[in-house]
Amino acid sequence: TMLPVYWTRLSRQSPTGIVRGLGPWWRYTVDAEGLENLRAVRSHHAEGARGNVEILADQHRHAIRTHLIADVVALLFVLIGSLIVWAVAPWWGRALLTIGVPGVGLPILGLVGRDKSVPIVERWLSTGAIVPKLTEGLIVQSLRDARIAGMDRAFKDQGDRAVRWLVPPVRLATGDGYECVLDLPSGVTVTQAVKAEEQIAAGLSRPVSTVWISQVTEEDGGHAGRMRMVVTDTPMRGAAIPAWPLADPETGASDIFKPIPLGINYLGQVVTVTLMFRSMIIGAIPRMGKTFTLRLLCLAAALDPTVELHVYDLKGGVDFKALGKKVTRAFQSSQDERIAPDVLTDLKRMVKDMTRRYDTLNELVETDPERCPEGKITRDLADDRSLGLHPVLLAIDETQTCFVDWADRKEFNSLVTKLAKMGPAVGIIVLLATQAVNGDTIPRSISVTAALRFCLKVTDHTENDQILGTGAYGKGYRASDLSADDMGMGYFGGEGTETQLVKCFFVDGPGATIITDRAHALRQAAGRPTGMAAPEEDNEAGIADRMAAVWPDGRGRVSYVELAALLAASWPQLFDGWDGEQVSSAGRAIGLNAVQVKYGGKNLWGFLHHEVLLAATQRELHNPDRPGPDNDNGGDPDG
Predict the structure, then answer these.
(1) For 407, phi and psi rounded to 5 degrees?
(2) What pLDDT band is residue 553 in, cutting at 50, 70 and 90?
(3) Residue 138, exposed/middle/buried by CB under 10 A (0-12, 13-18, 19+)?
(4) Count of CB atoms within 10 A of residue 194's CB?
(5) Which of 200, 218, 263, 446 has the highest local Cβ count within 10 Å?
(6) Whole-angstrom Cα distance, residue 394 to residue 329?
(7) Within its chain, how far is the Cα of 280 from the centroid?
């Protein structure tokens, strides 16, 4: 396609080529070299050498006559030869000569007259993904060039037979890449190959984000040296991500005991996470999708009506607002330390409830071993409201706020550590997320017990290993190598034997609100509403639940008057017409203490938030009318 351009470029320089070509011919015809010698002798020799000058002059004149004769003979030969060829050539030959002589002659003259500082052929720059075909030979050569310890000697001794092919490069069933399986040379492990993944990708002339090396699992007949390589056509960041399966209303309720869809892997396959009986750590630098991932898991839990949610967004954003007001048992969205007493009260209640759950399970093992033979919560036990063994999920976003910034950080550390260590066994799930990953924001006492890890983009290998576990970076799981464009993408470990790169499903704010509304409706239909959907019991029995549900964010104390207005706005059929006195009476009836509150420029009376939470909790867990282990054995309800 560039040939006409190059022909034109050379032809334009043909006049200069003619001039340059005539120069040597003219020097030959006039014997320029002989003339220069004659002049040199004349200027440097004395009078006595005049005979030599005459000899050189005769030679010069003879050379000119000889060259002129040669020029005439050559010209006649060319003219006569051209006429003969033209006369005997067919019509198509004449046409070919007419086109060919200038077509070939002009570029040749252009080559003679071209400016050598300007290249004729421009350097070719590739703008597309031009890559060699993936073959066994190319893969073997890339392994050679990677300089993996032990592999050089194997190739030197055995050649290409150093590797044994089980599955040669074949097209994936999905049609978007290649897959192969091979045994590395004796003594060389897949872990070594993973560390050299970048060099291997360079040898394949592919982006490293399209080359995936893993060990074939023992279940599939693998061992430490059996390598599976997948080479995708496009990088994972460019892959289109489908809609979150649970966002479809047709899916109905979720089940926290079963795997929850988290995202897709490099093959486009759905990756799931099982939250029940586990704790999870999520870490990343800001704006990489950490909060969205945590919210996704909370939304999945909310779609199971039996799950009790406690959500604390300690940066004070809007990401969890809809979720918090409609389906959570406890919720705060603030980084203000004034909410610390409320959060601590809730955590203490959860620790107390954890002890009760262990006691309940121990009693069930003794009294009903067929139903609970191993002392483990099952779906059946979780559905039995009388036992109070429903799943509980604690989610804290920006843990650095409570573990580092707040004065009560040691108490927060102690309480969350207890819940993370011992809570999962009795159905308490702990999800912690932070943007400042270190030993303080995620204490080691917690990180060593977290079964699930998800690391999005971080800055260095230290933070990488803090989340994924010591040695993860060395094994090739390097979230620090992700780019700023890889939002929602990170390494996920703990589900199965393999840590893998996952691109999370994306649910935006409006989509989260729609899912929350659906979760709210599911809970109402199941008779298990919480938060703003608190049960419509008689108003005095449920007053603590309702006060907790409408309590303004970040406020430690609220007046009777303001509470009356908030209750009436949320449940007009129950609280329309209530004033501060009625709220005061109802609160004192359940043991709340009056405190002074500044409201509207006046000193009024009201209640403390953490006392309201505690009263609501005690009423829920120790209601004498509710059957269960706490009340059937005649023990102290505060036990």
Answers:
(1) -65, -30
(2) confident
(3) middle
(4) 18
(5) 263
(6) 10
(7) 18
Take residue 340 and report the two structure tokens written for it.
């610390």
What are the tens digits of pLDDT across the range 468-521? 988 888 777 889 888 888 999 999 999 877 788 999 999 999 999 999 999 999
**What SS3 string covers 561-630?**
HHHHHHHHHHCHHHHCCCCHHHHHHHHHHCCCCCEEEEECCEEEEEEEHHHHHHHHHHHHHCCCCCCCHH
Average pLDDT over every residue of 213-234: 89
List of E strands, 465-601: 489-493, 500-504, 557-559, 595-599
Q: Which residues are CB-neighbours of 389 under 8 A, at least 6 positions away?
A: 357, 360, 361, 377, 381, 382, 426, 427
Residue 127 token pair: 């703008």
- Residue with tokens 């003679």, as numbered in its chain: 112
Q: Is the pTM of this model over 0.85?
A: no
CB 356 within 8 A of CB 388: yes
Residue 193's identity, in one-letter code, is A
Place of tokens 């396609």: 1
Tell me whether strands 164-171 and 177-183 are parallel, antiparallel or unpaired. Answer: antiparallel
Q: In the numeric block, which tokens belong to residue 139? A: 């893969």
Single out the residue of 627, 617, 622, 625 nearest to residue 637, CA to CA. Answer: 622
Rounded to the nearest 5 percent, the helix, strand and coil shares of the chain are: 50, 15, 35
